[in-house]
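[audit] Reproducing an earlier prediction to check determinism. Same input, same settings, fresh worker. If the C-alpha cells differ from the archived copy the diff job will pick it up downstream; this log only records the rerun itself.
[audit] input (63 residues):
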Amino acid sequence: MARNGALVPEAKSKMNSLKTEVANSLNVNLQQGYNGSLTSREAGSIGGEMVKRMIAYAENNMN
C-alpha cells in the first residue's frame, strides 16, 4: 500500500527551515511558496547540501 503522507507531521516545518537555512548560506534567494524562477543548478545545490547536512547529523547522532 502506497503512503503519500508524512511519517512525522512535524518534519515538514523542520525541512522547510533547513531548506531556507541552506539557501541563505548558498546565497540563493528563496521566495515563500512557489520558486519556479530557480535554475536547476540552484535547486540542486540546495537539495544536495540538505542531504549532506542530514547525513552528517545522522552520523554524529548514531551513538
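[audit] rerun output stored. Observation attached for the diff report: The chain has a mean pLDDT of 90.
[audit] end
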